[in-house]
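To fix ideas, we give here one paired sequence and structure record:
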Amino acid sequence: MIMRLFIAVNVNDDTRSSLIRLQNDLRSNSKHGNFSSPENIHLTLVFIGECNEAQTKNVKEIMNSTSFEQFELIIDNIGRFRRNGGDIWWAGVRSNEHILTLQQDLTKKLTVAGFDIDTREYNPHITLGREVRTNEQPKNIEQFSETVNKIDLMMSDRIDGRLVYTRIYEKEAGK
């Protein structure tokens, strides 16, 4: 079975509620947009792509070999990536040593194992919407945060035309 995989931080309910409020504000001030489903809101650490069962097992082993301590995920701005046909709008995650080291460690190990991983500079963000057309501007917001104590291996699937993300494995901090 082929699965489309990524490694992510799934946010807690309080953070999700705050992000949904930001998303709803953006939606109400937009002419158009394809907004992320509330249950799909997450911080991608590494997008892996299509994997067979052996590759999926290898990803789990790489996650197990990656050590990290819990860290604070701080969200303090809203920004966008400009695109023709509408921009990608996101909640900005304050970059910190823990997130960057974890992301770089996973990327390096996956690349060495033969996975084709994007090596562009990592810009931690949580996507709120795609193809968004609005007059809103990027801005700083009152920050909110949560403590991250695990990362998840997620499967992306399209079911009845809807994008569904399912956790298939998790790795706890400090283990």
User: Anything to note?
Assistant: The first helix runs from residue 13 to 28. Helices lie at 13-28, 53-64, 97-112. The CA atoms of residues 18 and 121 lie 27 Å apart.
